[in-house]
Amino acid sequence: MLKLFCPDMYIQSIYFLKPEDLANRGIKGIIVDLDNTLVPWNAEEPDNKLISWFKGFDKRGIKMCIVSNNKKNRVKSFANELSIPFIHKAVKPRKKAFLKGIKLLGTEIFNTAVIGDQILTDILGGNRLGFYTVLVIPMSSKELWWTRLMRKVERVIINMLIKKGLLKKPL
Ligand SMILES: [Mg+2]
C-alpha cells in the first residue's frame, strides 16, 4: 500500500534530471506536471532555462506531454510555447488522463515516466498504472489552500517512506 506513494526517483528539481538518466532506462516519453514541477505556481511562461532543459530531452528523442489539473488557458500557453501536447483539468490521480497522455505521446506505460511535485496526484496516479515515477521538490510554496493542506499529508507519507528505507531525501 505504502509503495503506491513511493516514487522511483526523488530529486531536488527537474534540473537534476538528465536525458541520459531516462534514456538508459528505456524511457521514450514523459508525462510531466506543470505547476511547481516545470515552473513556480504563478509563473506566466517558460524561461530560457526550462526551454533548454526541454530541448535536451527532445534531442534524445524523449517526447513530453504536460498533464495538469489546472485550467485550459494556463496549461495551453505553456504547452504551445514548448510545442508539446497537453491535457488540462486532468483530475490526477485518476487514471484517465495518464492513459490519454501515452496515447498523445505514442508510448506505452513501461517506457513512459511521470514527473511531478505531488505524491497524492502525480506519484499516486503514475504508480497505480505502473509508470516510472519521479518526484521533485515543489518550486514554490505559494499554492492553493487545498494543495497546502495536502502537503501536510504528503510530508507524513514522505517521512514514513524515509523511515522504512524506501526513499532517500534528495541531496
Ligand atoms: Mg504540481
TrEMBL record:
Superkingdom of origin: Bacteria
InterPro entries reported in the protein's UniProt record: HAD-like_sf (IPR036412), HAD-SF_hydro_IIIA (IPR006549), HAD_sf (IPR023214), PGPP1/Gep4 (IPR010021)
Protein name: YqeG family HAD IIIA-type phosphatase
Pfam families: Hydrolase_like
NCBIfam families: HAD-SF-IIIA, YqeG_hyp_ppase
One MF term in the entry's GO annotations: phosphatidylglycerophosphatase activity
Membrane-spanning parts: none
Residues of the signal peptide: none
